[in-house]
Design goal:
Layout (H helix, E strand, L loop, with lengths): L5 H5 L7 E6 L6 H6 L4 E5 L9 H12 L5 E5 L5 H10 L5 E6 L5 H10 L6 E5 L2 H5 L1 H5 L4 E6 L1 H8 L5 H17 L6 E2 L8 H13 L4 E4 L5 H7 L4 H15 L9 H18 L5
Helix pairs in contact: 12-13
Length: 281
């Protein structure tokens, strides 16, 4: 059985930047995905799997998770009969790290899902509609919610907006603020196109970071290293943080009212740099 990328396996999911979605009907992609640089891997039982293949895909996921693999699983929405089958099966999965609940619109959907799984199983609420965005604060505060994620493509279909960052800024901001209010890790942004080039991925990650989101879904394992880089502190930020912390530890004076906030930011950057292994990168 293939071994999960050790660096990624050791990283807490609250800090995961890249979230790689793998079509669960393509069992041959499981091992390469788990060996990739994706911080977290999600076996997708929802959007990428046709209805007539969901049962066999679910069997493949259970075989993998009870055979030594560990991963997250995106499950069908609570309004679907497939949700019942998903949670019934996954409640017996040894290697399940957590689930991503598609089409989350209400807090009770997250809580009920968590109740149907093993105690303590985290649930990522995938928000994909106008109603979900408007209920984001309640969803973020619901028992069982681990992080919020933004289903950009389905949200655009629901609302009728373009992919322009300005058109999606309100929804992204709602998820970021809701995550903060709910005491959650940063929200996870939607994916770029599967065939997007390096420039497009870099620009998309900049939008994600500028909006305050700290993770991003990916549909292509060739993209995950770019996502990791785009959502990590830059070399300049790390150098600045190291310099400020060193000065503080040497007894630098506070100076003005911006000093303590800057120090807190430097300490956060330093902590992330340690977690992501950036000091010697």
């Amino acid at each position: 059985m293939p071994i999960r990328n050790r660096r990624a396996a050791a990283l807490p999911a609250k800090l995961s930047r890249s979230w790689l979605l793998i079509n669960s009907a393509k069992e041959e992609d499981f091992a390469p995905g788990l060996a990739s640089e994706a911080d977290s891997v999600i076996f997708d039982l929802e959007a990428s799997v046709p209805d007539d293949l969901k049962a066999s895909a679910r069997d493949s996921v259970m075989k993998a998770l009870n055979g030594g693999m560990t991963a997250w699983v995106r499950i069908s929405p609570t309004t679907s009969q497939h949700w019942e089958d998903d949670v019934a099966a996954l409640s017996k999965a040894d290697g399940l790290r957590g689930v991503m609940l598609a089409e989350t619109e209400r807090p009770d959907q997250v809580t009920y899902t968590a109740m149907r799984l093993r105690a303590g199983t985290p649930v990522i609420a995938l928000v994909e509609s106008a109603l979900g965005v408007e209920n984001a604060t309640q969803i973020a505060s619901a028992p069982g919610t681990f992080r919020l994620a933004f289903g950009t493509n389905d949200f655009r279909k629901d609302v009728g907006v373009s992919a322009d960052p300005m058109a999606l800024a309100y929804a992204r901001s709602r998820l970021v603020v809701a995550s903060r209010v709910g005491g959650l890790p940063g929200a996870i942004d939607g994916p770029t196109e599967v065939n997007a080039d390096e420039s497009a991925i870099t620009q998309a990650c900049q939008v994600t970071a500028d909006m305050g989101m700290t993770g991003k879904l990916s549909l292509n394992r060739a993209q995950v290293e770019l996502v990791n880089r785009g959502l990590s502190p830059s070399e300049d930020e790390v150098a600045w943080a190291l310099e400020l912390i060193a000065a503080h530890e040497s007894g630098a004076s506070i100076g003005d009212g911006s000093y303590l906030p800057r120090l807190a930011r430097a300490q956060k950057i330093a902590s992330l740099a340690d977690s992501y292994g950036l000091w010697n990168a």
